[in-house]
Amino acid sequence: MSGETPRNSVSGCGARVTLAAMPTPALPPSRHLVLGVTGGIAAYKCAELVRLWVRQGHTVDVVMTAAAKAFVGPATFQALSGRPVRDDLWRSETGGMDHIALSRGVDALIVAPASADFIGKLTHGLADDLLSTLCLARDCPLLIAPAMNRQMWENPATRRNVAQLRADGIAVLGPASGEQACGEVGEGRMLEPAEIVWRVESHLLPKPLAGRRVLITSGPTLEPIDPVRALVNRSSGRMGHAIAAAARDAGATVTLVSGPVAVPAPGDVQTIRVETAAEMLDAVEAQIAGTDIFIGVAAVADYRSEMQAPHKLKRDGGPLKLDLLPNPDILATVAGRANPPFCVGFAAESQDLLAHAEAKRRRKGLPLLVANDASAIGSEASRLHLLDDTGVHSLPPADKAVSGRWVVDHIAHLFNQGETP
Ligand code: CTP
Fold this sequence. Notes:
Layout: E1 32-37, H1 45-55, E2 59-64, H2 74-81, H3 98-101, E3 108-114, H4 116-124, H5 130-137, E4 142-146, H6 150-154, H7 156-167, E5 171-172, E6 176-179, E7 185-189, H8 193-204, E8 213-218, E9 222-224, E10 230-232, H9 238-249, E11 253-258, E12 270-273, H10 277-287, E13 293-296, E14 303-305, E15 324-326, H11 330-335, E16 342-349, H12 353-364, E17 368-373, E18 381-382, E19 384-388, E20 391-394, E21 398-399, H13 400-419
Helix pairs in contact: 1-2, 1-8, 4-7, 9-13
Cytidine-5'-triphosphate binds next to helix 11 and strand 16.
């Protein structure tokens, strides 16, 4: 919902830039995770999963079923985790009760791969080995990454079981679709380890935007000159898509309006594809009702060619003159509505970054503008500066996925502050 009073107030006047204190953005915390490995060929990929978690500074305890040991040896997981692997309900390394103690004080229990058989056991609360007993006795979030043949995944028994697990509050990650170890093609592949790492972390993050609707523009717009040529701004769409994923992970319902980009659309985000600035504005206006937060990340082309030739223009050796017409300013249009959502702008500047960015924030009447150096366009990493009414908060250089989370944390903080009576 949008409030009754405009949220996009900018205090003070002039483009003075002050440096504001900002708590160092939180890095993903070190977590204590328990990985349950069941019997499936994807078990070999879990060696990589453990390696990724350990590299991020997490502590990982591995529990294996008897069937899992038919695919991978415990020594592999022991070496990678640096901790003893548990596989026996009746024999504990510590002399205590592993099926109780192992889930106490941990951040999450993840079963990957989760076989059809193990999913069936979980659904019915069976507890006849260490991992199934541990799942039943847990007091932490449980996530499963199913992996099985596509027919097993599509079997009504499996569908019923998975629906029941979801209803019981268990997070189901994947599965992915593609070529399977058995040679068949379809849904049932375990998600790749890096994707599991990302999904688990997303699941565990706080949800400061739960129940909120966020609308985001991303990527460039493309303004045709003739059927093969166009005017375009440089933008990969990586930052806009990372912001969309971060807002989703913060609990929001996210709609992304994206210009032409090669990056894949984030999962669980409604994505609307457009080409031109006019189409982007139409899509934004069609979605704006009920939006709480609007984030304009798109590099919208400021001009379009007046001439749009129906056929390819032929080179005649002489200069070509184009008349350019101004495009609508999508962000300013949204911010200028009667009851605007909380509006956030982005600005890439090639000189006097902070002064230009602050002037732009004031001109567009935005409570928050995110500035970055134009030389970083197209790169994997970014160094962002957040400009709001309290001054400039400079973030450390980071991968766009991480920067995106920091930006969304700051948006959620300002938005929720404005909502508090
Ligand atoms: N923006 C927009 N529609 C436009 C131009 C910009 O919605 N036609 C949004 C961008 O998505 C971004 C912000 O406005 O959030 C700033 O974009 P930028 O191109 O830096 O600003 P301009 O207003 O175009 O200023 P200039 O190009 O003169 O620097």
